[in-house]
Amino acid sequence: MPLVFKPVDISTEEKECRKDYFDRHTPYVICERQAKRNEKLKVKVTLGDQYVHPDDYDHYISTIQLWNRETLLAQVHFMPGAMGNQPGHVEVDFYVVPKMTMNLTAMAVCTKHGLWESETVDVAVVD
Q: Where is the Desulfoferrodoxin ferrous iron-binding domain (predicted)?
């Protein structure tokens, strides 16, 4: 079983290198907290808030997944150089059609630092 890194409040970290490490790997789910049943909902997943992630041949974000509880909704795979070999905030937009209330979580894989999980975002679904 791989080690899964959970979100950390970087404001509590004293060392800048630890803030950088946690922030640039942590996925964030960005979407409306309420959606209409059977209508497309845009869900953005971005990595990092303050610090950018490398895009090197041996160190890059290879996968981003979007989960609703235990169900994988969508995923995307990146190759090295997809960000132009420049550090940046990796992000992807997913579009899902909700049928019921969702609990969305993103997972991201760094080729050097493993599997990272976002905080869960609850989305209410209304008619």
A: 23-118
CA 42-26-1 angle, to 5 degrees, is: 105
CA angle 33, 88, 11 (to 5 degrees): 60
Q: What is the CATH number of domain 4-126?
A: 2.60.40.730
Measured CA to CA, the distance from residue 40 to residue 93 in angstroms comes to 12
According to DSSP, residue 53 is labeled B
pTM of the model: 0.91
pLDDT at 31 over 90: yes
What residues are paired with 70 via a beta bridge? none
Measure the CA–CA gap between 35 and 41, rounded to whole angstroms: 7
